[in-house]
Amino acid sequence: MSLLFSPAQLGDITIPNRIVMAPLTRGRAGDSRTPNELMAQYYSQRASAGLIITEATPVSPQGYGWNGAPGIYTDAHEQAWKMVTKAVHDRGGRIFMQLWHMGRVSHPDFLDGETPVGPSAIAAAGDAHTPLGKKPYITPRALDAKELPGIANTFAEGAKRAIRAGFDGVEIHSANGYLLDQFLRDGSNQRDDDFGGSIENRVRFPLMVAQAVVNAIGSQRVGIRVSPTSQFNDMHDSDSIALFTHYAKELNTLDLAYLHVLEAFAEGHILYASGEFNTPHIRKAYSGHLMVNAGYDDKTGEAALENASADSVAYGFPFISNPDLVERYKEGKPLNAPDFDTLYTPGAKGYTDYPTAK
């Protein structure tokens, strides 16, 4: 049997195949920031994935910064997510929520005029797509160390809400240039206290968050995502291999369900940035279930499992346009191409209207 279609254990749950739906921001929650029936339909259409990881979901108003993203910090959010988890479970699926804080790449237009926060007062290059239009990122307010436990607690509270809403677990977003990634990398973290400077100090806050979430819902329902070579949101680090192998070793002590690595599998890929891949080093350093993501297809995904580079493979764009991706891969059917013009637009077009092979 192909390894892609073999079962695996992810913490407390068994997944029937190793084809994971990667987290994909789609912006269909509207101004209410609350999940809706259309989102329930979208996720349930993809329930044959071994595991669904939801779009990034802010854990607090301070962490919000994307038009139409759903939240998980109010009773209304929690209640509405139950509709999504029930729809997925009714079709035999499994679903984790990705917990998010955008940090410096939010904007005052999302924050009632407040300044976004980050590890240091260093603005990201680029623009925010705010409710009032496209605007340059502003210089964030450097967080005081005394504020960090409170932010970690918002992740823990979001995790508890997710479990009450019926999720099988959560994934902590420690990637893609958002708050936890901002603390990890020295391009955005130039603090001179216990949370900046050395690698040991820069991993301290992300580990605080991970420990808080583990304490809240148990380690076997928690995954974490990293993006060692991604330059998205103006991210870079002077020694990503040393940083992320150290981080992986520290995460071993938490006994998580998985570590999810977003890194290109080949040179020339849009995310390929460093001269050397991080993932093989992380594989050696991390003793638990390793999930990989970025540009894989069925053949390269199978190869990654066969050569033990990974234990499961997450797919992003293929799942956008192929709700039956697992079945298409299993039967060798061609894939629908995604419509990039409708990635973040409101409504069903380019969201729930992609046909299955049947």
Q: How would the blueprint of this fold be written?
A:
Blueprint: E1 8-10, E2 13-15, E3 19-21, H1 37-45, E4 51-58, H2 75-90, E5 95-100, E6 117-118, E7 127-130, E8 133-136, E9 141-142, H3 148-164, E10 169-173, H4 179-184, H5 199-202, H6 204-217, E11 222-226, H7 240-252, E12 258-262, H8 279-285, E13 290-293, H9 298-306, E14 312-315, H10 317-321, H11 325-331
Helix pairs in contact: 1-2, 3-6, 7-8
Describe this structure in words.
The strands form four sheets. This protein has an eight-stranded parallel barrel with strand order 3-4-5-10-11-12-13-14, surrounded by five helices. The protein has a two-stranded antiparallel ribbon with strand order 1-2. It has a two-stranded parallel sheet with strand order 6-9. Helix 3 (148-164) runs parallel beside helix 6. Strand 1 (8-10) and strand 2 (13-15) form a beta hairpin. With 358 residues, the chain is of the alpha/beta class. The protein has helices spanning 37-45, 75-90, 148-164, 179-184, 199-202, 204-217, 240-252, 279-285, 298-306, 317-321, 325-331; strands spanning 8-10, 13-15, 19-21, 51-58, 95-100, 117-118, 127-130, 133-136, 141-142, 169-173, 222-226, 258-262, 290-293, 312-315. It starts with 7 loop residues before the first strand and ends in a 27-residue tail after the last helix. It contains eleven helices and 14 strands. The chain is globular and about 55 Å long.
